[in-house]
Amino acid sequence: MTPLLLSAYTATTCLGRGLDATRSALRAGYSGLAPCAFETVQLDTWLGEVAHVDDEKLPVALAAYDCRNNRLTQMGLETDGFADRVREAIARYGKTRVGVFLGTSTAGILQTELAYRRRDPETSALPDDFHYRTTHNSFSLAEFTRDYFGLEGMAMAISTACSSSAKVFAAAARQLELGTIDAAIVGGVDTLCLTTLYGFASLQLTSTQPCRPYDAERNGISIGEGAAFALLERTDAPAAGSILLLGTGESSDAYHMSSPHPEGLGARLAMEAALRSAGLNTADIDYINLHGTSTPANDAAEGKAVAALFGATVPCSSTKGATGHTLGAAGAVEAIVCALAITDGFLPGSPGTQTLDPVIPVDYLKQGRAGTVRRALTNSFGFGGSNCSLILGVAA
Amino acid sequence: MNAKPLTAWIEGIGFLAPGLPDWPTARAVLRGEQAYENAPSVLPAPAILPPAERRRASRVVKLTLAVGLEAAAHAGSDVAQLATVFSASGADGHNCHALCEQLAGEDRQISPTRFHNSVHNAAAGYWGIATGAMAPCQVICAYDASFGAGLIDALGQVVLDRQTTLLIAYDSEYPEPLFAKRPVPDVAGVGLVFTPERSERSLACITVTPETTPADGLTDGALETLRTAIPAMRAFPLLRKLALGEGGTVCLDYLPPMQLRVAIQPC
């Protein structure tokens, strides 16, 4: 693919709001995980909850969108001056020429979970103040974002579980390359809800401790939430130091709904496709941000795929010990982590990971360290066997 | 820059809607050769799944397998090689209701199967398991604009990646109380196999461009009701042209004020 410019980007997770909070937490090896104290949830697990999400007030005209997921969407958009950069792009290109491509796994389903507690005792009807379209529906965050900026062009939500907001980069890149749009708001937003917390617990995939990606004793994920966005544009002559999207790769496991292909075959196909799309070889990659959920099966399968392609030559880490697994937001959050690794010359480590799994032969970074990163690859894999790898780089 | 046209050839069509169990029936009705009779959607048992999975398969899984396999068979495509774009305005409504109901009660220990079936890409995941397709699989939601969003992404993949791509746009109903908030009446879906080049199997060539005029409707009142009640059925004006083997242009509902103009040239 032709490289695309990330002309603005931002991330908000339990590490804090925005790029500075994220980079200082990653440098310090800090984890934002804390014991679960969300809503009425009674589970022995750790969460990456974003502070002050419910303090966010939506514009009056967009009140029907009010729910935790759109509060975090707005919070993310209004961080690092991202919304201003979007408005500048709209002024440059016009409101029909800026597309919206956002990933999520559960959007605002928490709103429905809460509304079910308030069903009419006689009729079981949901309360009048519950708005399905603008909160629960998977498109709600994309439609909110489109309306927030008064856009009139294309928009879509991509919902492939935990690969959702990696795949938005690929979908937006296609439309930019075709010239159907001139800029794209890409990103992902997922917020804590009972469906995912009790759901991952039912699959025995949540840990009772902070997650420990690639650790020999890893035993499950820590669920997080987050909002991360990038503004993608075509570029003829990017300024030196600009962050570029160089390649995207997508594949399917065709294996199982909630377990990865044991040999990591789908993961390998996605990484190979991303390298092909970028016109790069494995030797060109300086850092890999792993999916690294900290479940025994995910890390084993992904580790096999990374080892088969890259050997133990490329430093890699999962940052989910810091942020938690932000599910449908993870792809975008970790693309931004790669952008920070490139601009800062710092390879993040893996808080929580103590003893590396000896059967996974990759160059795993327990501790962060300084290092030049010109090109970084990031993996995102989801339920249903949905895989996506992205490659980011820096303009010379 | 000059935009590359969103152009592709259609080689196969699959269809299922209330009263219209497959594409040959829908085609005959759209051609005016057969009267439309409203009836609940009939979902065939997916023969491609092993017997145990077949019994457990949900309505959206049966629906997507039905329209996807019909379209692929019509095109003579090897399903294991097809890239896919799934686009739906919602996921499995019955499963969603069961989860929300249980999570509103005292016992929140939900079933793991219910949980993994709750993801928007559940039907796409089962498609992959059933067909063995390891090609890229996209899963989109754009509420009432889901057909248009899926069409845009599928054509993008065909034009840029030169890859034969199957679009499966589908919807299903919620039970009450969600039904009152989102009254999709029944399951329905359409499958379209798009290729980057013309072949002897090509049925028509389509080109999609943005438009702001109102969408075309259907003169048959019952079909027009389906078009507006089930998001995937926003494809009807295009399907009518394909059924008639007519060239011309139609305008499809997308995201107001943006609509999609589809130019159709039969092969």
Low-confidence stretches of chain B: none
| Domain module tally of chain A | 1
Reported CATH architecture of chain B: 3-Layer(aba) Sandwich
CATH homologous superfamily designation of chain B = Thiolase/Chalcone synthase
CATH class bucket of chain B = Alpha Beta
Integer-rounded radius of gyration of chain A: 20 Å
Low-confidence segments of chain A, given as residue ranges, are none
Describe the structure.
The complex is a heterodimer of chains A (396) and B (267). Chain A contains twelve helices and 17 strands. Chain A has helices spanning 19-28, 68-77, 82-93, 109-117, 132-136, 140-148, 164-178, 194-202, 265-278, 296-310, 320-323, 330-344, and strands at residues 4-13, 16-17, 34-35, 46-48, 98-103, 155-158, 183-190, 223-224, 226-234, 243-252, 287-289, 315-317, 346-347, 363-364, 369-370, 375-382, 386-394. In chain A, strands 1, 2, 5, 6, 7, 9, 10, 11, 12, 14, 16 and 17 form a twelve-stranded mixed β-sheet that branches. A three-stranded mixed β-sheet of chain A has the order 3-4-8, with no helix packed on it. In chain A, strands 13-15 form a two-stranded antiparallel ribbon. Chain A is globular and about 60 Å long. The two termini of chain B are 30 Å apart. Chain B is 36% helix and 23% strand. Chain B has helices spanning 23-30, 51-56, 59-75, 93-103, 112-116, 122-131, 146-161, 178-181, 221-229, 236-244, and strands at residues 6-16, 83-88, 137-141, 165-171, 188-195, 204-211, 248-255, 258-266. The longest helix of chain B has 17 residues, at 59-75. An eight-stranded mixed β-sheet of chain B has the order 3-2-4-5-1-6-8-7, with helices on both faces. Chain B has a single domain, classed as Thiolase/Chalcone synthase (Peroxisomal Thiolase, Chain A, domain 1). The interface between A and B is large, with 68 and 66 residues.
